[in-house]
Amino acid sequence: MSFKRVVITGMGALTPIGNDVSTFWKNLVAGVSGAAPITRFDAEKFRTRFACEVKGLDINNYIPRQEARKMDPFAQYAVIAADEAMKDAGFGEDTLDLDKAGVIWGAGIGGLKTFEDEVVNFAENGKTPRFNPFFIPKMIVDSASGILSIRYGFRGPNFITVSACASATNALIDAYNYIKLGMMNVCISGGSEAAITNAGVGGFNALKALSERNDSPETASRPYDKDRDGFVLGEGGAAIILEELDHAKARGAKIYAEMIGVGMSSDAYHITAPHPDGLGAQIVMKNAVENAGLKPEDIDYINTHGTSTPIGDPQEIKAIEKYFGEHAYKMNISSTKSMTGHLLGGAGAIEAAACIMAIKDQIIPPTINHFTDDPDINPALNLTFNEAQKRTVNIALSNTFGFGGHNASVIFKKYED
């Protein structure tokens, strides 16, 4: 059988540095940090009292109040991003076969705030157990894809991928494969997360995973810096419209880029720590490059997982150096988590969007907050520190790695007919 080509025809984003793709990308290139003191709840007693929150968002400007109250924030974020992406894709009423249009979304946790609120309410008023009738459908992680499917009438495949911080990338991989195999023409994919809650911050604090740089939140996410002390929790998400090429051309769609390769692997090592030699990361990049029919030297840019953790950052760099060899020093590499924080299950979506925009505008977003070189990270690597860099970007690779040893990579290419 002949495989279909898959292109990107629409995008939407809701992030800590912008509530649409245009603002997100402008601030990403400008090196704007989204970190600030937490406003969602009183974080005074926590070791970490800051995060990368979505800002200036009035849900009711996007979703009617009665609908919004039936959704956890992570699902609300999915709707807002998907609405922008669908509008951007410019579908007409007669350009979609709804039976071959699907939704494959990613989220690592799902309705954490809903679960937390209901449990607290029960603990405080437990004499008479009373739960919100929407508790379960708001909490379950697959609610986001179900809501989107209902919203647009898409009757094709509809599910959520859950692989911790690799979730959104795995969603993109599944969407790509379904379209490539001819099982869908169009898919809304991406991911979202809303874990800036008491339980989210408290849980990651207990793991000693979060930065505790409370005196300077905006400089706390510092991937590859010698003095990094953990990641900064983020929230939001992004939606990406994947479409079969001939279907897109037939309706005259604009095409941002082509998705050409995917890779997956497992560290098979530890539930939270990466493999010390970056073995799983090497394998996933190799799998993606080979799946795309490329050679390592074809990659121009890598948007790394780069969370700003003491252990994780050097392992990914080690993997890049081992797999790419001398070409590792000719590519641009950057971690946009230095600006957005870590969106957990939604990270792969906004980072895929960053790769697509890097190809579109031929510019590499920076890794901000670099102050001190880490002696364990080779200074010959171009980690795009502190300022965006113009360069030819034909092919970009995005890495995401999740607790449990889940690794996923996707590759985008400048579209050529």
**What amount of the residues lies in strands?**
15-25%
The average pLDDT score comes to 97
Q: Helical residue percent?
A: 25-40%
**From the 3D coordinates, which CATH architecture of the largest domain would you assign?**
3-Layer(aba) Sandwich
N-to-C order of helices and strands: EHEEHHEHHHEHEHEHEHEHEHHEEEE
Please identify which CATH superfamily of the largest domain we are dealing with.
Thiolase/Chalcone synthase
Low-confidence stretches: none
SS element count, helices: 13
What gap, in angstroms, lies between the N and C termini?
21 Å
Question: How large is the radius of gyration?
Answer: 20 Å
Gross geometry: globular
Structural account:
It is a single chain. The protein is of the alpha/beta class and 417 residues long. It folds into two domains: 6-250, Peroxisomal Thiolase, Chain A, domain 1 (3-Layer(aba) Sandwich); 262-413, 3-Layer(aba) Sandwich (Peroxisomal Thiolase, Chain A, domain 1), CATH 3.40.47.10. The protein is 32% helix and 18% strand. It has helices at 21-30, 65-68, 73-89, 112-124, 135-139, 143-152, 167-180, 198-206, 245-250, 279-291, 312-324, 337-340, 347-361, and strands at residues 6-14, 36-37, 50-51, 101-106, 158-161, 186-193, 236-244, 257-266, 301-303, 332-334, 363-364, 389-390, 395-402, 406-413. The strands form three sheets. A ten-stranded mixed sheet has the order 5-4-6-7-1-8-14-13-9-10, sandwiched between helices. Strands 2-3 form a two-stranded antiparallel ribbon. Strand 13 (395-402) and strand 14 (406-413) form a beta hairpin. Helix 3 (73-89) runs parallel beside helix 6 (143-152) and helix 7 crosses helix 13 (347-361). The protein is globular. The two termini are 21 Å apart.
